[in-house]
């Protein structure tokens, strides 16, 4: 799909966006701590990650493909896009796409500060903001807790001054969970981003309950484990409960499991495929399993992983 | 980096295999027909090894290798690879330093490419030069990728590094410091290619190990016999 087509698609889809947002907010109770979007409404439970997928350098064709993915994402009701200075050219690609699609006002921009010494943090965040083209970030996170002791106070000051809306911290693959927990208890953060998937449920032990207790929103990264989870499951037939949930693929199954956790605010799968982003949005925003169904999902896949 | 043992190579990946392949492809498309020039230059250097030794020839070898490293540092690593890999500029700096070192050895130090006495490591050296100049461009089609993704001496880093290691193994006196950057690149890029699940990921590390083994053998052989 050409970029012009993508823009036209977004224009035609505007009424559907409002309808989908209404539908998204009706999918189960909103997680405690989930932020309210500018203009009202809750954050949809599926966002868009950009690690690897959007780092395409100056490849014009690949950049256009990323813009097509963003167009399909917004058309399906998506709001949150997550990135980081660590992700190479991803921020610039996102910014180019937002500008071309005229979505700067709709995106919930989630970025990260990732630099040491921390004295360079302010400059890095400003550089990131310029790459995105947003007037301010909705969410700024300390990436993988790098120099968090210095960065976090700065982010909280920025929030108090209105220069960012929300503040958070991130980790991945279960690392530094004790530090994450301590920060959640001791500091007034709005978001925590951790890995949570059908195969990696460590966050359920302490982080998700603590997030609920403290009113902290949760972003779940690596819901497909960078594709490894889906490759591992591909040789197995879908379990019986998949039909009940209207799942026709393992990707839908895995994403529904993550997005349906009552304490997960938003999952951020990453993709370069328009078809996949549409599938992700459809799977994560409707017909989410309840707790009983989640337990059966876990039980029916336990032997497969 | 805490909990370092939990990291895998793909934890450090910043881009996909497809993105890297398209980078090679766009490089080849943009610089065409430079590959023909560098390929012929590499073949010329290889064939030249069979001719009687001359100081002029040895100087030309080092100067051409220096130019190759300088071009790869600038065009591939800095202008292109750095757009998807923030560490590429550090590699570009090392490549530039290697270029300066090769130039200095060739012009100022009278570096000799061919030793007065043949050594059992010479066939290995020749093999590496053949690998870098002739075989490496064939790897892409052999692994099912299009010809436009072929990696060519003095255009892409791997064949440039491997060819240089071959010449350095022939050098007299041994230029051990000059193999540090090539070996480091082979190990780094081999790990990267392994993370990208590239079919030729084992080649650069194998070349590095072979080169180091040859240099150590020469050192032991020289110490024990002279």
Give a description of the structure:
The complex is a heterodimer of chains A (305) and B (226). Chain A is of the alpha/beta class and 305 residues long. Chain A has a single domain, classed as TIM Barrel (Alpha-Beta Barrel), CATH 3.20.20. Chain A is built from 13 helices and seven strands. In chain A, β1, α4 and β2 form a beta-alpha-beta unit. In chain A, α4 runs parallel beside α5 and α7 packs parallel to α8. Chain B starts with 16 loop residues before the first helix and ends with a helix. Chain B has 226 residues and is an all-alpha fold. Helix content of chain B is 66%, strand content 0%. Chain B has one domain. The radius of gyration of chain B is 18 Å and the shape is globular. The mean pLDDT of chain B is 90. At the A-B interface, loops of A face α1 of B.
């Amino acid at each position: 799909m050409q970029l012009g087509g993508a823009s036209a698609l977004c224009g035609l889809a505007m009424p559907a966006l409002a309808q989908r947002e209404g539908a998204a907010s009706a999918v189960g109770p909103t997680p405690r701590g989930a932020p309210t979007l500018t203009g009202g409404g809750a954050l949809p439970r599926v966002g868009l990650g950009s690690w690897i997928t959007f780092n395409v350098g100056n490849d014009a064709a690949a950049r256009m493909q990323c813009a097509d993915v963003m167009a399909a994402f917004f058309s399906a009701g998506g709001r949150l896009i997550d990135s980081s200075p660590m992700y190479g050219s991803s921020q610039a690609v996102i910014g180019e796409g937002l500008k071309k699609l005229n979505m700067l006002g709709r995106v919930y921009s989630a970025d990260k500060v990732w630099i040491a010494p921390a004295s360079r943090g302010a400059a890095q965040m400003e550089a990131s903001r310029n790459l995105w083209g947003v007037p301010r970030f909705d969410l700024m996170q300390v990436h993988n807790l790098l120099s968090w002791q210095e960065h976090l106070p700065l982010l909280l000051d920025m929030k108090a001054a209105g220069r960012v809306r929300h503040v958070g911290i991130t980790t991945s693959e279960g690392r530094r969970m004790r530090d994450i927990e301590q920060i959640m208890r001791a500091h007034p953060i709005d978001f925590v981003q951790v890995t949570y998937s059908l195969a990696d449920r460590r966050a359920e032990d302490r982080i998700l309950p603590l997030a609920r207790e403290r009113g902290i929103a949760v972003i779940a990264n690596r819901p497909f484990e960078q594709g490894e989870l889906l490759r591992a499951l591909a040789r197995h037939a879908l379990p019986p409960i998949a039909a009940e949930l209207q799942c026709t693929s393992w990707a839908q199954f895995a994403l529904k499991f993550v997005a349906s956790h009552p304490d997960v605010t938003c999952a951020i799968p990453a993709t370069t495929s328009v078809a996949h982003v549409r599938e992700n949005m459809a799977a994560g925003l409707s017909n989410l399993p309840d707790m009983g169904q989640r337990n059966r999902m876990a039980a029916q896949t336990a032997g497969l992983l | 980096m805490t909990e370092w043992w939990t990291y895998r190579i793909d934890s450090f990946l910043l881009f996909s295999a497809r993105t890297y392949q398209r980078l090679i492809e766009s490089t080849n498309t943009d610089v065409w027909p430079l590959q023909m020039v560098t390929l012929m230059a590499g073949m010329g250097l290889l064939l030249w090894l069979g001719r009687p030794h001359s100081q002029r020839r040895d100087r030309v070898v080092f100067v051409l290798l220096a130019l190759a490293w300088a071009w790869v540092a600038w065009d591939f690593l800095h202008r292109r690879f750095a757009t998807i890999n923030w560490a590429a500029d550090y590699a570009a700096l090392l490549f530039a330093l290697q270029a300066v070192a090769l130039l200095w050895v060739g012009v100022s130090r009278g570096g000799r490419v061919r030793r007065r006495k043949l050594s059992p490591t010479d066939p290995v050296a020749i093999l590496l030069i053949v690998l870098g100049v002739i075989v490496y461009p064939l790897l892409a089609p052999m692994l099912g990728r299009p010809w436009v993704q072929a990696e060519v001496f003095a255009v892409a880093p791997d064949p440039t590094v491997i060819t240089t290691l071959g010449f350095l193994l022939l050098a007299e006196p041994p230029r051990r410091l000059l193999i540090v950057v090539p070996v480091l690149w082979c190990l780094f890029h081999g790990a990267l290619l392994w993370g990208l699940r590239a079919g030729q990921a084992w080649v650069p590390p194998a070349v590095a190990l072979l080169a180091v083994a040859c240099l150590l053998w020469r050192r032991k052989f020289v110490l024990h016999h002279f």
